[in-house]
OAM dimerization domain-containing protein
Amino acid sequence: MTSPIRPYGDTTGDGMVQLSFTLPIAHSKVADGAALQLANKMGMDPALVVHSKPMGEGFTFFVVYGRVNHLVDPSVVEVVERDYPLLTPKEANAEIKRSLRRRLVVVGACIGTDAHTVGIDAILNIKGFAGEKGLEYYREVKVVNLGAQVSVPQLVERSLAEKADAVLVSQVVTQRDAHLLNTREMSAAFREAYPEKKRPLLVVGGPRFDEAMAGDLGVDRVFARGTTPGEVASYLVHRIQDRKAS
């Protein structure tokens, strides 16, 4: 079992940390004082503003260095580990061809009022993300990208029409937990529209999602920020193989 870890510089049970943030206040000595006040209220004592600069009209960016008296315990951190091998596009294509003997159909969209397609496009479009080609690059994958502001009924209808194997949904707008509400609505609609064993894989992603919430949201997988097209493709191949085997 791992022991709790103290921040850097610990000798007496406390340590030093660096924190950066922006406040809606014009750059001034008063702004620096407000930043110190906030740092103190967050448990940094003593704290020192080591950098501040204006960030547009009426905003200031700060870097604060200070002492804290908190421990972190890696043994109680819960994460979702990748439980499948990463495949190259060539390997993924070969496995799809062997397992399905047809192209894998993927339908993607941003649902609700979300108009931010950067996330879904990074996974689906051929230009991809982080140096990896998107799913459109995979010759054994048929991609149907519905774009932004797609209603749940529209998504279900198109998925049925395309005989989708997987549905990928990106959610960036998170005010009032809209991403969670939309995802639960989507999963309920797919459960109603499909027999359990015929339902496509439901995959959601976005910067505010918790990867451990898949079961609570009624989806098969949640991907957080930084996910690459290769990770998504490998997961889809892995799960499709599992389904065929069962």
About this structure: Residues 229-245 form the longest helix (17 residues).
